[in-house]
Amino acid sequence: MAAPLKIQDSAARAATASQKSRCWICGCEHLELVKPCNIEELTSASFSITDSHYGTTGAIYRCSACQFLQCSELAEVLPYYEELVDSAYDAGRRERSLQARKILNVAHKLQPGGRLLDIGAGSGFLVEQAIQMGYEAKGVEPSGWLQQVARQHGLPVYPGTFPNPAVSGPFDVITLIDVIEHVSDPVGLLGHIAEALRPSGMALVVTPDVRSIAARVLGWKWWHFRVAHIGYFNQKNLFLALDRAGLQPILIRRPGWFFTAEYVWERTHRYLPEFLQVAPPRFIAGRVIPVNLRDSWLVACRRKASN
Predict the structure, then answer these.
(1) Which pLDDT value is given to residue 274?
(2) Model pTM?
(3) Which among 284, 225, 256, 258 has a CA at the least distance from the CA of 93?
């Protein structure tokens, strides 16, 4: 088991990180500390998909050139993902499958069929839906526990990250749903995706938008500011990352999600004073509702002609 990591957030360490780190998107060396680290200890549980410790992050630095926000001191977190166990995530299989189907409907209009790869596949929701829609689908997932859950459902999800010898291309569709904000080399990952696509293939990328209205209103309390997210994109630097990786956007959307009413109730109440927090009413039990706060980007892209 990966040992818990103590985070020392001192002025000296911040200065050192600022001097030595480069922007993960454009390579600029001028990074400014904009939010100190407020993590006391890191364990695999810190990276749970269903984590609700909003506002708890590593030290966040902003690139002076492209405005990308990154947690430079959390560049090596893969061991924590490999040991991740998140039973609450798989318990939401019904609503997460609806999310996956909605995303795949976008892909299907542009690329209806063929070989599909889902990177960061979790317990296989999207792979399962893609197979039902007629794709030859498979996935890769670093969490050994989530990968085994997918296998228990009979889904072809393989352990590890991408590139991965178990899932060699070319692919007609590659999906990267809420993954790119978890990696310290987003341009490199996108470049590998571009290389694995057929010339006519497409990639579908979803990530939070740090310049959305919700993010600006809530500030550091925004629900996407949490330990597992080590990179924060706006539209401009997301497009820059795609371009540097050899990908050309062809469609952009604000994706919506599905949650149980109890989940929405509980997460919303975290922003209220304790004396206003009450248990959810019984009549909402079991209901699944669509939610679109317009604080994420969905970008469909193809390989650039020069690739």
Answers:
(1) 72
(2) 0.89
(3) 258
